[in-house]
Design goal:
- It is a single chain.
- By secondary structure, this protein is of the alpha/beta class.
- Helices cover 42% and strands 12% of the residues.
- The strands form two sheets. It has a three-stranded parallel beta sheet with strand order 3-4-5, sandwiched between helices. The chain has a two-stranded antiparallel sheet with strand order 1-2.
- Helix 4 links the parallel strand 3 and strand 4.
- Helix 1 packs across helix 2.
- The two termini are 26 Å apart.
Length: 174
């Protein structure tokens, strides 16, 4: 199911109706957006997000780097906005570019640095962004293949450690 499939939704969407149509894998319901170049988030985003918040204990949203109006709305509603930054100069530059827009609408920001062999390190990320690194995620090259095969990242110890740290920050049980 993709977000564009819900674009005809207008007004209030019930949490139950949303839960009924979302695919579930290992207890996690998923809704993804169109990844086509230039694809905008559908106008149904506010209704879908409101229903998701009412119907689920945890809602995770991956917003586009350019933070359009829907992205600002999503970040503004978030309890915690996670900025994931690879420990590389180019990634750090991109993070520095988007950070002021995130700071303008986020209630709280957690920076997660992703280690890279020969990378600049988490201390450099923290210094350049002016935010402490909440946790350092060890890069696991097997995750992409596991996700592509439909297994998800659940077998990655690194992903579990990062997720556990973020859930702890939110006061949620693992």
């Amino acid at each position: 199911l993709r977000g564009r499939d819900l674009d005809a939704t207008r007004g209030r969407l019930s949490a139950g109706a949303l839960s009924d149509v979302l695919p579930v894998h290992s207890g996690t319901a998923t809704l993804s957006w169109d990844r086509a170049p230039g694809a905008a988030l559908p106008d149904s985003v506010p209704s879908v997000l409101t229903a998701a918040v009412r119907g689920f204990d945890l809602v995770v949203a991956d917003v586009p780097r350019h933070l359009d109006a829907h992205g600002v709305d999503i970040v503004g509603r978030s309890v915690l906005t996670v900025l994931v930054v690879a420990e590389e100069i180019c990634a750090l530059g991109a993070a520095r570019h988007v950070l002021p827009r995130i700071e303008a609408c986020a209630s709280a920001i957690a920076v997660v640095s992703v280690s890279r062999s020969g990378g600049i390190g988490s201390a450099a990320v923290a210094d350049a962004l002016g935010h402490p690194v909440h946790t350092r995620h060890r890069f696991d090259r097997r995750i992409r293949g596991s996700v592509d095969r439909g297994h998800g990242p659940g077998t990655s110890r690194s992903a579990r450690r990062t997720s556990a740290s973020l859930l702890d920050a939110l006061g949620l049980e693992r």
